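P.,

For your records, the input lines for the assembly:
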Amino acid sequence: MSKIPPDLLAEWNIVVADDEEDSLELARYVLDFYGAHVHTAVDGNDAFEAIERVRPHFVISDLSMPVVDGWELIRRLKETPELRDIPVIALTAYALKSDANRAIAAGFHNYLTKPLTVDTFMDQLISLLIAIPELGSLLRL
Amino acid sequence: MNALRKLRANSLRRQTLTLVALVAFALIATGALTLSFVVGATEQTTWTARQIEASANASTFIGGVMREIRLFINTMSAAESSENFEEIVTDISAHYPTISEVVVISRDGIIQAARTKDETILANTLDVVESNWFMRALDGGTYLSDLQFSPENVPYLIISSPLPSGGVIGVRVGMTAFTHAIAGIQYGESGCAYLVDSNGQLLAHPDFALVAANTHSGGRPELVSALEQGGGSWTGTYRNFLGQDVLGTGVAVPDTNWVVFTEVDQSEAFAKGRLLLVLSSVAGIFGGVILLLAIDLLLRQYIFAPLDDLREGTREVIRGNLSHRVKITRDNEIGELAREFNVMAESLNEGRDSLHKHAEALRIARDEAVAASQVAEENVRLKSEFLSTMSHELRTPLNAIDGFTSIMLSGMNVEVSPPVHRMLERIAANSRRLLELINAMLDLSRIEAGRMELVNVPLSAAKLIERWRTQVEPQAGAKNLKLETWIAPDFPTIIMGDEDGLTKIASNLLSNAIKFTPQGTVTLRLHWCGTSWSIQVQDTGIGIPVNAREYIFEEFRQVDGSSKRQYGGTGLGLSIVQKVTRLMGGSITLESILGAGSTFTVTLPVITPDAPPPDDSSKKPLVTVGNAATQETAHVENTSGSPR
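C-alpha cells returned:
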C-alpha cells in the first residue's frame, strides 16, 4: 500500500453505486484516500443522474440494487451515446464465473467480486485502469 | 321381407334349407314317378289284355270268314263237273253273305258261270285273261288280291283259285263284314280297332271314309313289329298313322298278310297314372313345403336363433359392451358355446376393468412422477438459487469486515496500537478462512448440482504451473516451505483442458500439502505418459494414517478432529479435487508414509481437440485400498465415487 501513491486518483471523478451503506462507505473511504471525488448513489436511478451530472472517469456499480439495478443502469448508459464510453466496473457479492461473464456481455468493463480487502481491491482496480488507455495514462503511479 | 332378408343374410340357414329342399324334391319326384310307373304298368297290362282279347276275337272272326270263303271255293271246285253248276253257284253264294260276286272262267277266258248280289265287276272285266287274279290262279295257287275299289268307290277283295278243269273261280268279297267286325271293337273312350295288310293298306276301319280314301300306312314301325311277331301278338306305345299317341296291340290274322290293330289313346290308357303323378306331385310339393317350413322353424329355434344371439353378443363385445351376456336357452352344444362365450365376455370384462385400473394407476403414478420431477427440478433450481443468494448474502457482510479491517491494518489515516493490530490480523485471518469455506462450499455444491461445465481449451503447461505456484507461494512462504515445480521433458507445450477445473485440483492439492507440512518441501510435478498425464503433489509432511485414507476425500473430514484446529482449512479441498477429477474422467492415487509425507497423483486422460468429453464418471469403480492394514506405504487408488 505504501507503494501506491496517495494522490493516485487526484481530481478524478468516480461514481459509486451500491445499496449497501457499508460498501459505499468503504469505497468512498478508500477512493477518497487516493484523492478522488467520490459521488455515491444508492440505486441505478441515482447513479444515472450522478453520471449525467458529473461525467465521471469511471463508475463502480453493484448489480443488485432496489428500483433500478446494475443491469438496468448499464443498459441505460449504453443507450445514451454521450455516456456509453464511460467504463463501468461491476462490484458484486455474486461470485459465480457465469455472473461475471454475463456482466461483461452486458457491457460492464470488468467485474470485481466481494469481499475485498483494501489491497486486493486496489491491486485489481489499478490493473483494470491501466488496461484502459485514456485512464491508465492519467494514473499517478 | 324380413324373413327373406334374414334368409339371404344367413347363408348357413339358406344352405341347409336348399339341401333339405333338394333331398325332399328328389324323394318326392322318385316316389311320384315310381308310383305312377307302377300304376301305369298295371294300367298298360290291363289295357293290353283287353286289346289282345279284342284283336284275337276280330282275328278269329276274320279268319273264320276267310276259311268260309275257301270252303266255298273248295266246294265249287268239287262241284264243277256237275251239271247244275250254275245253280249251285247261285245257291251257295246265297249262303255266304260276305261273297258279293262269283265268276267261273274257263282256261280260255270264257265265262262259264257268274253270279252277283249287287253289281257285276268281275264278269265285266273286258280282258279277263289279262287280269291279275286270273293269271295268278291259273299259275296254280289261291290268290288274295290287294284292296280294290269299284267304280262307285266301294272297296272289295278278290280271291281266286284254279279249278280242276283248268279254269279259274274268282270271288269278290265286300268289306262290310270285316268293317262290322272291326267297328264292333270298342272299349274305353277312345279304344278302337282297324285292319291293315302287310303293305299298310287300310282294309277296315270304324271310320269307313278312311278305307274309302285308300289310306296307306306302309313301313310303319308298329306294323313291321307286329308282322315280325308272326302268329303272336305285339304290344307297344307309338304314334299311329293318324298321328295319335296310342297304346296299341297288333295281332296277325291267320292265313292272310293282315294285322288287326287295337289302339287306345295314351292319354286315356295312362290317365290314372298321370293323374296320380300330378296328384302325388302336388301333394309331395305341398308336403315338402310344409316340411321345409317345419325344418326351418326347428333350425331357427334350435340353431339359428341361438346363433343370432351369439352373433349379436359378439357384436356387442366388439362394440365394447363387455357386460352383455348371451341368453342360454338349451343345454346342447350351442348352449355350451353360449355359456363359454359368457365366460369369455366375463373374463374380457374383468381384464378390461383390471386394465383400466392399471391404466389409472399408471396415470396416477405418471402424474406423481411428473409432479415429483417438477418438484425435483424446482428443488434443484431453488437450491442453486439458494446457494447463489447464500453466497451473496455471506459475502456482503464479509466485505464490510474485510474492508474495514484491512483499512485499519493498512493505516490509511487510521492509527491502531500494536495489540489492536494483532487482534485485527486475527479478524482478517478468520475472515479469510470463512471466505475460503464459502468458496469451497459453493464449488462443491456447483459440482454436485451438475452445474460445473468443463470447457476444454488449449492451455500452456508452463503458464499453468507458474500460475499455480504463484497462487500458493505466499502460503508456503509463510511457513518457510520450499516450493518446487517440475515438468516432464516430453510434456507437450500446449495441453487441452478446463483451466478452472485443473486449477481447482492443483491449488487444493497444493494448499492441502502446505497445510499438513510443517517443514521441508512441497513439489508439484506434471508427468506425461502418452495417453494420460498427471498432476502430482508430493510433500514431506505428517503423512496420512492407513485407516484415514478411506475417508479423507469425504467432506469435512480430516485425519482427526484435532488436526482441524491445528492445521486449519475447510475440510472440503480433497473432496473438491476428487469430484473435479471424476468429472474429468481421471483418477487419484495416494501414497503416504506416516511421518514422512504424502504423494497425491491425479491422472487425467489426454484430450485431443476434437475428442468427445470424458465419460460420466459415475460408472467408474469405487475406491480400492490395497494392503492397507499391513503396509506402511499404502496405495489408495481413487478413481471415482465417495468411499462409503
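Two observations worth noting. Chain A has a mean pLDDT of 90. The CA atoms of residues 13 and 54 of chain A lie 7 Å apart.

Regards
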